[in-house]
Amino acid sequence: MVEAVELKYQSMQQGSCAQTLEFQIYFNDHVDNDFNMLFKILPFSSPYFSAGVPGSFHNRLFPKGTLHLVHSNYALQWLSKVPEEVQDKNSPACNKGKTYCTWAKKEVREAYYSLFRNDWKSFLNARAEELVEGGLMAIQLPGVPHGAVPSQTGAGLLLELLGSCLDDMAKRGIISEEKVDSFNMPLYFPSAQDLERVIVMNNKFTIERMEFLSQPEKESFDPILKSLHMRAIAEGII
Amino acid sequence: MVEAVELKYQSMQQGSCAQTLEFQIYFNDHVDNDFNMLFKILPFSSPYFSAGVPGSFHNRLFPKGTLHLVHSNYALQWLSKVPEEVQDKNSPACNKGKTYCTWAKKEVREAYYSLFRNDWKSFLNARAEELVEGGLMAIQLPGVPHGAVPSQTGAGLLLELLGSCLDDMAKRGIISEEKVDSFNMPLYFPSAQDLERVIVMNNKFTIERMEFLSQPEKESFDPILKSLHMRAIAEGII
C-alpha cells in the first residue's frame, strides 16, 4: 500500500521536483489484541513509522483531519456487540438456543441488520471526521450475494456448525444451556446492496469503486481446517 | 500535561471564540515494553486519543513536523548501548570485572561521556525533525551535581552494589566471570553543565528553563526497597 501511494505520488509529480514522502502507519485493533507481538514482527528497518492504536473502530480513534488513507481489511463484518433483542427472552427477536442467525426467523435477522446499519453509521461518521478532505478509504470484507439469507451462505452454515457443536456440549453437560443461550456471534456479512445503502444514506463518502473478489469454497470439506478456521475467529470471544 | 496545554490555550484565546482542542498522545518505549499492559490500563474514556510507538528514542520515530510537545520522563539517562571500548579487552577503557563506571578510571568514564554526547545528539536531531516549528520539549531525568564523579553519587554507588552482587555470584560459581565481565549498565547521569553543553553544541533547541528537583536520599538504607528498585531498573537487561 505504501508502494502504491509512492508510485501514484511520483507519477503525479513527474517532471517537477518531488519531495520524499514519509509514511506513518497506525495499526488499529481492540485493546485485547496482542500489540506486543505485532510490534515484534514489524520489520526493524521499515519504510514507514509505526504506531499501535487500541480501541474499537466503531468509535473515534484519531484527531480530526489527520488521516490520508484508511484501510480496513477483513474486519468490518464484526458488529460492535450482539444485538440486544437477540439476547432478550421477552423479545420476538430472541435467538434462544442458537449462536447466529443462520436459520433464524425474520425478526432475528432484522435485529442483526439494524445493528449493522447503526455500526456502519458510527464507523463512517468517525472516519469522516478523522480523514483529511479528499482522503481515501479502502475496505475489504467478506460479504454475501444480494438477497441471500444466512442459511444460503458459507459463513452462515459454518457458524451454524459452531452453534450445533456448542449445543451438543450443552446436551452432554459439558457447558450449561444458559451459557449457549447467552452466546451469539456479533457478525454481519453484508451484500453489496447493503453497503451501498448505508454509504449513500450516510452521505459522508462517495463510492469510487466496488469490486467482487471471488473466493470459491474448496470442494472437499476439511474438518481440521474448518475447526482451525473457526478457532481463529471465535476462540477469543467464546 | 493535557490540562496544562488546554489552560494555556484558553488563556491565549481569551475573548475570542476558542475551538475545542483534540489531543493525540503517543506513548513511546522499546519494542520489548509491555504495550498490552499499557493499553489495558489507559482510562476507557480519556480526554485524548492514544497510540503506542515502539522503538528507540535515539532514532526517528515520527514523520517530520508532526509533534507539538515532546515529554521525556526519567528515560534519557539510558544510553543507546554500552560504550564499545568498555567491553573491549584491548582498549584502555576496558571495564573488566565491573558493571558500571562508579570507581572506574578516567578512560572508562570518558567512554561513557562520549557515548552520552553522541546519543543526545541523535536524540535532539531526531526530535528537531519531528517537532513542528516552535514546538516544545520537556525533559525530566536524574542527574548529578557539576563535577561529581560517579563514586560520589547515589546512583553510582547503587550500581556499584549491583556489580558487587554479580561479582559475589561469580565467585560462588552461580554465574560465570565472563558473563559479569560482559555486562555493563548503559546509563549516564549528566550534570546540568553536561546537558547545557550538548544542547548548545547541537544548536537545534534553546533552553527555556532548567530546574533542579531535589530528591534527598532517605537516611535509613532499606535493603528490600533498594533491591526492588534495582530489580525494576535492571532485571530486564541482566
Protein model, in words:
Two copies of one chain form a homodimer. The first copy, chain A, has 238 residues and is α/β, with parallel strands linked by helices. The first copy, chain A, has seven helices and four strands, in the order H-E-H-E-E-H-E-H-H-H-H. Chain A has a single domain (56-234), classed as Rossmann fold, CATH 3.40.50. Chain A has helices at 2-12, 35-41, 106-130, 154-171, 177-181, 192-202, 223-234; strands at residues 24-29, 49-54, 67-73, 131-140. Chain A has a two-stranded parallel ribbon with strand order 1-2. In chain A, strands 3-4 form a two-stranded parallel sheet. Chain A is globular, with a radius of gyration of 21 Å. The mean pLDDT of chain A is 90. Chain A binds chain B through residues 22-24, 26, 31, 34-36, 39-40, 42, 49-55, 60-64, 66, and chain B through 22-24, 26, 31, 34-36, 39-40, 42, 49-55, 60-64, 66.
Summarize the structure.
Chain A has seven helices and four strands; from the N terminus they run αβαββαβαααα. By secondary structure, chain A is of the alpha/beta class.
